[in-house]
Amino acid sequence: MTMLLLRTLSRSSFASSRSRHPSYACFLLGRTFAVPAAVADEEAETVMFPREGSGVSYGLNWALAGRGVIVKDKAYYNLKMSELEKHGTGKIESMSGLILYMRGNTTGGTPDISKAQFGKLLKQVASHISSASSVFVQDGAISSSPTFDAKVRIISDSSSALLPLADVLWKTPTRAVSHDSSPLTVYIASSISGSYINIIQHFIAIACIPLGSEKVSFFCSGMVILGEEIIYGRAEIYQHISANCHSSKTVENIGLSPKPTTAFAAVDIERSSLILCGNAFADVNIIKDALSALAAPIISARGGLPLLARILVSGNSVILLFAPEDTIKSSSDLHGTLLSMDVGVVLSSHGVMPFFQTKDRTVPNVLKMPAAIIFASADSTGALPSISKLSPGQAAYHFLAGYQDGKFTPAYIKGPSPLEPLALANALHSQLKDSEIPTFLINVNDGGKHINGKELLKLVQSSLSADLPKSQLGANDAKVGELKGKYKSFLSGRFEELPEEFSF
């Protein structure tokens, strides 16, 4: 019965894709979203269809329908670079500083988007991709280990938009995403108009700003929706806002500049989805931040510990380095020893592995356990020595603080994250106790002088030696006492209760 139903649905969807008017796509979305993506992927693998060829795979079409994308003509899957070039892949100019909206962020730093807003935006983007004559699908993974990874499926209206993500993600076997229990999905609507993107962004930003006696709930299908009533089309939106917004702020002050924005990104952790509108696919930093945030809970659920650190290789030893971005950039002597400039690793009982693809293709999927873990901190007062060996409790404490000359960056997380820093600190503490990995604190601003990359590398390498200066972290000194007070004040204010084992 199931087989008969699948064949019937696939034939009817194939026939309707040729006959339906593009404007009807939004009405079909309500039905397609009722099919769970994982179920659709799994069932699609069991159905065989005739007359399949390049760009024509009914199984793939059925899987895409489960994600809200109805293939209009052709869908291309995991094309090679040479094949992508045939479809018009050109040079991509990199971008930076784009806006990332996120639902499920616990660390701050990004504007929020509600569940309803993301859902309506997703339907709009899926409808836009469905209107493209060709859809491009690429699979990959975050983390080089198939045991502790997060599978990713990219669905794009453009072959060019796939390239930046293909350079970031690890290769994964065919059907690995289809058989995965919790894959991530990236939707790319690169050809959506700039003015349209601008309007969508504005209505994400002003979802609760009073307009007269009403509130804008969201913008969908080119209309402003007040409550349940559709009142205006796109051309009248700005006029309505200007006339009815009784706020002391101007339209520009509340983020409603008439200048169109070319791109933005939105993430929903619960839906395991990333949306890239316009040329947001060209902002690799935003993509990595978003993918890291999406992958973290999945990797954690699979037994890995996702950490924002870098892998440093010194001789035959692997070292895990936690350091601020500024420290890494200014330490050029360190760059040659880093496995990758990208931040993001998975620490497990089997070893350590990078989040993103490295340039060195000879690197094994899983590297051995770190010989040492280094936390780079900055203190110009002289309270912190140049290098100190830490107990697991001290390591977790300094990791949780992420102290940098008066500022704190818990768990060294500068960007968005769905995981609580304290939960990560507890997990790291357990890992350090079990594995007995030596951990060290290095002061990169010892005595008010910022050490250079060569000096930092020397200190890092000295962590592998037993000949280390005696730790002064517990010294009875006024400067040490003052710094301890800063730590305690911040951590007690940020976190309700710390484990007894955590200490300065």
TrEMBL record:
Q: Is Amino-acid biosynthesis one of the keywords UniProt gives this record?
A: no
Biological source species:
Dendrobium chrysotoxum (Orchid)
Belongs to which family?
Belongs to the phosphoenolpyruvate carboxykinase (ATP) family.
Q: Name one GO molecular function term.
A: phosphoenolpyruvate carboxykinase (ATP) activity
Q: Which GO terms describe its biological process?
A: gluconeogenesis
Which EC number(s) are documented for this chain? 4.1.1.49
Q: What class of enzyme is it?
A: lyase
Keywords assigned by UniProt, alphabetized: ATP-binding, Lyase, Nucleotide-binding
Q: Which reaction does it catalyse?
A: oxaloacetate + ATP = phosphoenolpyruvate + ADP + CO2
Q: Which GO terms describe its cellular component?
A: cytosol
Q: What is this protein called?
A: phosphoenolpyruvate carboxykinase (ATP)
Which pathway does it serve?
Carbohydrate biosynthesis; gluconeogenesis
